[in-house]
Design brief:
The chain is α+β, with helices and mostly antiparallel strands and 369 residues long. Helices cover 41% and strands 22% of the residues. The strands form 4 sheets. The protein has an 8-stranded mixed sheet with strand order 5-6-7-8-9-10-12-11, sandwiched between helices. It has a two-stranded antiparallel sheet with strand order 1-2. Bound molecules: zinc ion.
Length: 369
């Protein structure tokens, strides 16, 4: 535990008290467990390279049946600091004993406007009924419970983890022993969404774990400090926000009656540079919109003797190929253009535009400048 009672029954937070003072009180048996009032001693510290904490003399306590792991002790301290940084106006208390529900929250947050959060850092297995019991008790007490799981349980298929994802639509795993502390944000996605997401971009989360009946688990990993808690305790990360926005755009593009330039530009905003959009994508899109059928008509003509391509079409296609050769001189060679074509959404009417782009590239590579 990270909090004990000191002389006079004052609560003492291990990390916030000078070590010499803690060691003196410990020798004098002046530290006690806030729960069972039994004598506790100071343990760990910088010299021992572990989190400074308090432990019962012989490990017995009516409130904690199992010895607390180093990961759990460290995690509570890491999470309390993470919460204090995000909510400087809130009161963040470690190991808060709550009369309602009658239990100790790992970290308790009282926001200035009065809402309360209990943040639980779970490193040990937890029975699903026990989790439900605690979750319901918190909710009945008007406390939002936020469950963060030790990275030691990340590979495990456990009912309580599935229940947390079902309830919060996401979950955070934490390795507090790394410096800086590392986190894995996981949330359920559908198989369809998996296929729609862009390949090989920096934005792409990796997929791991099966989140029970909810589908696939998308995961992002980063330092804990890159992840923030939103108003309703929702976990936020910039890459996830961008992906959600792209998902929303893809859904809109899938059902659009025709290619809408503004939607495409928003979609490409985070994956294609502004220069590439203006030099390549926009001129190409406008040419496509003027005559979507040009390349198909031209290709069809080339393959049949009785219907040769119209002179006008041949001229326009030649002009497009000349344009591609100019692009190559500006740094947009075939490889670069192919990479860019991969960023186009292959949904609804946008798929036809992506095919037009690929057709033009194929024509260009079969002709020399
Ligand atoms: Zn105790």
């Amino acid at each position: 535990m990270l909090v004990a009672y000191g002389p006079g029954g004052r609560p003492i937070v291990a990390e916030e008290t000078p070590l010499e003072l803690l060691q003196r009180w410990s020798r004098e048996h002046a530290l006690s467990c806030p729960n069972c009032r039994g004598v506790v001693h100071v343990r760990g510290g910088p010299e021992k390279r572990t989190q400074l904490h308090f432990a019962h003399q012989r490990g017995e306590c009516a409130w904690s049946t199992e010895a607390e792991s180093v990961r759990h002790i460290r995690g509570k301290s890491v999470l309390a600091n993470w919460l204090r940084k995000q909510f400087p106006q809130a009161v963040v208390t470690l190991e808060k004993r709550l009369p309602e529900p009658n239990r100790i929250a790992d970290i308790f947050v009282r926001h200035e406007h009065g809402t309360c959060w209990a943040v639980e850092f779970q490193c040990a297995p937890l029975d699903i009924d026990e989790w439900r019991h605690r979750h319901t008790a918190y909710r009945n007490a008007q406390i939002l419970d936020i469950w963060i799981i030790g990275n030691n349980r990340r590979e495990k298929q456990e009912a309580f983890i599935e229940a947390i994802i079902a309830s919060a639509r996401e979950i955070l795993f934490l390795d507090p022993l790394l410096e800086p502390p590392r986190a894995w944000l996981r949330w359920p996605v559908s198989r369809e969404m998996l296929q729609l997401w862009p390949q090989d971009t920096a934005l792409r989360p990796f997929f791991e774990g099966w989140v029970g009946r909810l589908g696939f688990g998308a995961s992002l990993t980063d330092q804990l400090n890159s992840i923030r808690l939103g108003e309703q305790g929702a976990l936020m990360h910039s890459a996830r926000a961008i992906l959600l926005e792209r998902t929303r755009l893809l859904e809109a593009m899938k059902v659009a009656p025709s290619v809408v330039e503004a939607l495409l530009l928003s979609y490409l905003e985070h994956s294609v540079s502004e220069e590439a959009v203006h030099t390549v994508m926009l001129p190409l899109l406008r040419a496509y919109q003027r005559d979507p059928d040009l390349l198909r008509r031209f290709n069809f003509g080339r393959g049949s003797l009785d219907q040769p391509p119209r002179a006008e079409d041949s001229l326009r296609v030649q002009r497009a190929i000349d344009w591609l050769h100019t692009l190559a001189k500006q740094g947009y060679g075939v490889t670069r253009l192919q990479e860019l074509s991969q960023e186009l959404p292959f949904v609804g009417p946008y798929a036809a535009f992506a095919r037009y782009y690929e057709m033009l590239l194929a024509l260009s590579s079969s002709t020399s400048p």
